[in-house]
Amino acid sequence: MKNRMHHIIVLMLFFQLSAISAQQKNHQDRLDAMIVNGMKDWKVPGLATIVVKDGKVVFQKTYGVKNLATKEPIDENTLFNMASTTKAIVAIAMGMLVDEGKLDWDDKVVDHVPYFKLSDPYITADARVKDLFTHNLGIGNADFLWTLDSVSTKETIKRFRFAQGSYPLRGGFTYQNIMYAVAGEVIAAVSGQPWNEFVTERVFKPLGMNRTQAVASDIFKVGNYVTPYYDDAEDGIVQVDYGFADQIGPAGMICATPGDISKYLTFLVNDGIHKSDTLLRPKTFKYLFEPKSFLGDTGTYPTNALTKPNWNTYAMGWFQQDYKGHKLDFHTGSLFGLVAIAGIVHDKNMAVYVFANLDHAELRHAIMYKAIDLFAFDDDSRDWHTEVFDLYQGFKKSNLEYQEKQKKARVRNTDPSLALQAYEGVYRNKMLGAATVTLQNDKLQIDFNEFVDYNMEHWHYDTFITNKDSRFRQKMTIHFKLNTDGKVNAFDLFGEEFTKSK
Fold first, then answer.
1. Between these two residues, 402 and 215, which has the higher pLDDT value?
2. Within 209-327, where are the H helices?
3. Could you tell me if 152 and 76 are in contact, meaning their C-beta atoms sit under 8 angstroms apart?
4. Which H/E stretch holds residue 274?
5. Residue 430: how many CB atoms within 10 A of its CB?
């Protein structure tokens, strides 16, 4: 009788495991089919998706090519850029130092980085280490600091003091990359190691993330990396320049592989424990995912129109919202032709990550939500690819209509106020550095900080328009100003004034 009962139990377990295996295989096939179909519509050259459930990798697959010219296929060891999903790793690193008692989240930033200074002296004095991660210090965005120049981390932070305040301390939300660079400086000051060495030694090595690079430019040394692309409305899919800016590395420059990310996701799903090693204390790990900033209608994603969350918050390198009655922690990463997205539903012990080498390939959102539906909720009811694709096609149409409106607003048959030679000179901005305007072959050119340069064409009156940037493929409008003597003395660029010095 006992033997018979034993056999029955074994058979029941066998059929149960077989059913689970069949269900998992069905989920894998469904997700795979959506990705294949989505890549065609979004024209994504290469992509990788990883899903972890209950501490195990249940989906890991690579698609497409690293480079459209060479047709080299992507594999599990191919390096992509993590972009802003880097931020969560920097928060983990800081948490390790908190665990060791070397600093506290409420420490004042100036106590660790004395040269830290903001335009508001009150915010400078009261800014805490935790504030570096939550985008609510009250200072406006200043990403031109690293897109128009390549100065050191220290110089970048020093120049940031000229960025103006936009709301009271902890009284709003403005996405801010520069503060993560400051966080990297805090890690260096407290640990005695550059932030990149610290995360390599304390995060990557223990997790076995052996191909992951904390300095983005190092991918060119180690090889097997993707090429960035952009879907240009006029020119189609075009290769763009790498936009690595390691001076703000902690904000988004870590590069990792699908194979390494599977280990990282497993660590996150296991609440900061790798195998039997607790890399972060449970209290600290939980703190990283506790809401710190309340977003309201600001800082939220367009996909909110589809997910309809009741609340939106930000933790330590994670956006958050409710999804199907559970908290979803997620974050995108976008950097000149390279994108990523990470999502975790802790209640379901499930995480997903997507890489792609096409600028703002929002198929990443569809993959994340489809993976969550399938592996966390056993739900295959929504066509996420179609919904997300249609949403962003609408944005694309609106953007094209706006561009056409701008073209129609151009005042035709006007001339600059002065001869083109009069616009030549060096223009300076305290925060953004120097811009040199020269006349070459009867056309004006502008060079920012001997780092990035553009050709300019006359638009109307004293306004000129640049050619497309080789990284983000956007044209910029530059408006020159004349003083009371009728001489050029400044120009405006996206609200920042550069004053002519000679």
1. 215
2. 219-222, 249-252, 258-269, 282-288, 304-307
3. no
4. strand 273-274
5. 12
Closest listed residue to residue 243, CA positions, set 452, 502, 490: 452
Burial tier of 383 (Cβ tally within 10 Å: 0-12, 13-18, 19+): middle
User: What is the greatest pairwise CA distance in the chain?
Assistant: 107
Residue-wise pLDDT tens digits, 95-128: 999 999 999 999 999 999 999 999 999 999 999 9
Q: What is the identity of the amino acid at 350? A: M
pLDDT digits (tens, 9 = 90+) for 15-51: 555 555 778 899 999 999 999 999 999 999 999 999 9
d(CA 163, CA 143): 10
φ, ψ for residue 255, nearest 5 deg: -115, 135
3-state secondary structure of 494: coil
Give backbone dihedrals phi and psi of 145, rounded to 5 degrees, phi first: -60, -35
For residues 450-468, one letter each, b for 16 or more C-beta atoms within 10 angstroms of the residue's C-beta and e for the rest, the string is eebbbebeebeebbbbbeb
Output the average pLDDT for the chain. Answer: 94
Query: What average pLDDT does range 130-143 have in this prediction?
Result: 94
Q: Which amino acid is at 182?
A: V
Closest CA to 449 of 468, 429, 466, 464: 429
User: Which uninterrupted H or E stretch holds 437?
Assistant: strand 433-440
- Residues 165 and 122 sit within 8 Å (Cβ to Cβ): no
| Residue 367: φ, ψ to 5° | -65, -45
Measuring CA to CA, which residue among 111, 135, 140, 105 is closest to residue 281? 105
Signed CA dihedral, 134, 139, 140, 144: sign only: negative
Long-range contacts of range 367-372, CB-CB < 8 Å, 24 or more positions apart?
Answer: 367/31, 367/34, 367/35, 367/38, 367/49, 367/341, 368/330, 368/341, 368/343, 369/303, 369/307, 370/30, 370/31, 370/34, 371/31, 371/49, 371/51, 371/59, 371/343, 372/323, 372/328, 372/343, 372/345
Only one residue has tokens 């020159």, namely 480
Give the pLDDT of residue 494.
87
Q: Taking the CA atoms of 251, 252, 255 and 261 in sequence, report the sign of the dihedral they define.
A: positive
